[in-house]
Amino acid sequence: MLKTSAEYLESIRDGRTLYLADERVEDATRHPAFRGMARTWGALYDLKRSGELRDVMSYEEAGERYSMHFLRPRSREDLIRRTRAHEVIADFGCGVLGRSPDAGAGSVTGMTMKPEVLDQKGGHKDHLLKIWQQLRHEDEFLVYAILPPQGGRDPKFYEGSGRQVPALRVTKETDAGVVLNGMKMLATNAAFASQIMIGNILPLAPDQLKESVTAIIPPNLKGMSLWARESFERRGDSEFDHPFTARYDESDCMLVFKDVFVPWERVFVHDNPELARAVLTQTPAHVMANHQSGVRFRSKLRFLLGLASLVTQSTGARDVPVVRETLGRFAAAEAAFSAMIDGQHMACHEIEHGYMLYNRRYMYAALHWAMENHSVLLDQIRELMGGGMFQMPASVSVTNNAELKALFEQYWTTPKESAIDRMKLFKLAWDLIGSEWASRATSYEKFFVGPAFSVRNYNFLHCPWDRYQESVRDFMNRY
Fold it and tell me: Could you tell me the pTM of the whole model?
């Protein structure tokens, strides 16, 4: 079943406890700090149902239609179909929406492609498969929080202090379920999601049994609260002046649990520290979710490239040799990254149960490239802009005054562009690379999959060192 925008918006008016500082937000779909993003996600649900995109964004199975991000691929063509759907969503958000509905869905779908990982102590394969069926049947928006709070990563600090370790843990078990206390970070889009997965992507120590819980839960459980960061959307009152801030501010939330009861049927890892991470990394979950992030970044690269071209065209510098060289390097980078995405299809491989999976090594290499180069590319656009942004009036409201509007149009118009078109372009560029919203997006790109050392470690772990070393030894043995 594919949800409509109206059905989606109604589904997130569920009584969740959402705080913005000390304010309790009763309805994120109407609150000025959240409503723009809520409407954006609603528009995406309608986009998926549009006639020309129906077969791109969804698939049919046993007479029912599901969102494409729940498809379990059995061929290269299926992988490409998934990528195309990711691309539509990424293009819809200009590549800046990091935790769109296809991200979380890809992760859980990947788990179900190798569910036997859960056939050990503390694993509940049947729970996972049943939850996944619900997610795709209800076309639900799943996000995840799979990191402990930074302050809780050194349990020794709390020993003898009388303070409770803030990391989320099971504090009580009953025949019906578990009781959770503590915190999880960082649930991007939790304000707009219908389900949240809690888990552990960082390794746990053997004695962290009670922290090794993985579950998918609704965000309105009694005792559970969502603490949102500062809203940028709230200050983006003019869409003209702040086009990204006004509609694409993915709220990030800390999840706080105070005696929260979770039924056993929502839990699929319990009391097994090694399994808590394995369900993400030893199934296709990590690959499926992070292939989506690579496709999303490709859309962002293409948008940035178009923006750089328009900015230099507006300033009249596009044909200056050194500027053309910069744009040429940017174009080459975009083409190379695009090839890294396409290569994940070409070098795909079959896994258990007849499923096909994107090339894991190429996927991690793409993540590393994006992490290392995003800020560099933004700095290049900043240089290409020069002082263009700071020559613009503070707001488009200047055009509300007839006298000021006439002066603006007289002095800011160029032979190739009207004053208002120039202003619109530079306001867009600044919101993408220089605003508070842009600063959050830059940090997000740096830590999208975790700290840099973690991303490099994934690349280290999946490199076939033995094969490459053997080629060197074989050559040396010839002489």
Answer: 0.93
